[in-house]
Amino acid sequence: MTQGDGDGDVRADGGRPEHPEPVPAWASPATPPGYVPVYAPVTQDLGTYDLGTYGPPTGQAWGAGPQDTRPLTQPGASDPPAPPVRPVWQQPEPARRGRGRGSVVLVAALVALVVGLAGGFAGGLLADSARSRVVRDPGFSLPAPQTGSTQRASGTVPAVANGVLPSVVALQVSGGGEEGTGSGFVIDGGYILTNNHVVAAAAGGDGDIRVVFQDGSQTKATIVGRDTSYDLAVVKADTGGRKALPLGDSAGVVVGDSVIAIGAPLGLQGTVTTGIVSALNRPVVAGDQSATSFINAIQTDAAINPGNSGGPLVDERGRVIGINSAIARAPGSGAGQAGNIGLGFAIPSNQARRTAEELIRTGKSVHPIVGVLLDQEYAGEGVRVSAGPQNGQDAVTPGGPADEAGVRPGDVILAVDGVPVTAPEELIVQVRAKAVGEQVVLTIRRDGRRQELTVTLAASDG
Fold it and tell me: Measured by CB atoms within 10 angstroms of the end CB, which terminus of the chain is less buried, N or C?
């Protein structure tokens, strides 16, 4: 069988170890230069030795170091021998230079860290202590501001607002178990122009209207006249000599013009908001079936909220070009959620002037008409004149403006003075924006052909 060769290797030829003389157990083979022996267990099984033939005289295993003095176990013994060891030559590690210096550096770093933490803690205590002390300088003062002025250049928003505000009022209205607030402005001789829906609650016998001026003074007012269709009203009050605001020419307004809205939105008197004219000739139908208003409105993005109604929309020269009357409501919002969404509507000043004059002169205003009944079921282009009588009334009033202009039952009206109409309300708004006796051109379609007819507007009976 194979035998161990003393350094843990296995002899392939099965011969004796190469040593001519047994190596004493305490002797170590010659140490190669620069190496030191490190004893480790032999990895191969050395087998069971015949002490009389191959084993060392002392009965120790081949390659055992001096510290290993346990005898080999005799064949058949119950205790296994101690694991034999052999020398493994290993080059010693070079001396680690700077080890002491590295320790010093580490210690220094730790000391620096501790000192830094202690310094920071101490600094924090000092800062807290400094903050806890109240430092005062009895002689301290800030530089005086440069002399300012409340004067603003003509045409600026502050200058316009300053000139308009004294003539704008808030109206506190009650009557019929209702109460509310709105706005208005002085037009002339103690007359105040506002919306009909602002003063409607006070139209009964128990109504009360209180005018509140910009300086806080108050007085009572009475209704001179009001018109539901135009949503305009005039009240009379002691205005204390406050100047009237001039009514401008709304026909000269163009989209993009700068405008200023002034009033008492949500009861906040003297509120000024700015914007531009965002659209013209916007047909607006407001109110309900019992009090429907038709407005050929000026649209603005100036902030308008409940309470702005009846207040002026002025241009950069302080001239009234519209009376704030309505606001758009976001789809799906209820009546209690109405508020500014950038779409407000004002009655053009030219319409307001005519109506105010009529209300002051007679207590009521007249409405221009063309004298036709419209087909409410028609859904095509334009609006169609009814094809036959409705509720005993002729589709085209005999001898009326439309009849004299040549309009026939079933005609489709496409435009008024070149402005397209797509719904009956739009036609009514376009006509109501005109004056009685004024001529308008109707573009109609009959039997597939277009033609233009000139109509002279007449006054309604009611």
Answer: N
Instruction: Answer yes or no: CATH 2.30.42.10 is held by domain 368-459.
Output: yes
The secondary structure of 307-354, three-state, reads: CCCCCEEECCCCCEEEEEEEECCCCCCCHHHCCCCCCEEEEEHHHHHH
pLDDT score for 56: 45
Can you tell me the distance from the alpha carbon of 445 to that of 336, in angstroms, rounded to the nearest whole number?
A: 43
Task: Give the contacts of 63 (CB within 8 A, at least 6 positions apart).
Answer: 4, 6, 7, 8, 42, 84, 85, 86, 87
Average pLDDT for runs of 10 along the chain of length 462? 44 47 48 50 43 42 44 48 53 52 54 57 58 82 88 91 96 92 93 96 90 96 95 96 95 97 95 97 82 91 95 97 90 64 94 96 93 92 93 93 96 95 92 94 96 95 63
The catalytic residue among 197, 365, 367, 386 is 197
Confirm whether 157-237 and 252-329+338-348 share one CATH topology.
yes
Domain boundaries, the chain: 1-91, 157-237, 252-329+338-348, 368-459
Name 90's Cβ contacts closer than 8 Å, sequence gap at least 6: 35, 36, 37, 38
How far, CA to CA in Å, does 161 sit from each of 18, 241, 299? 123, 19, 20
Q: From the candidates 5, 227, 231, 301, give the one annotated as an active-site residue.
A: 231
Residue 363 and residue 164: Cα distance in Å, rounded? Answer: 27
Residue 28 annotated in active site: no
**Is residue 231 annotated as part of the catalytic site, yes or no?**
yes
367 is catalytic: no
Determine the pLDDT at residue 339. Answer: 76
Correct CATH for 252-329+338-348 of 2.40.10.10, 3.40.50.2300, 2.40.30.170, 2.10.109.10 = 2.40.10.10
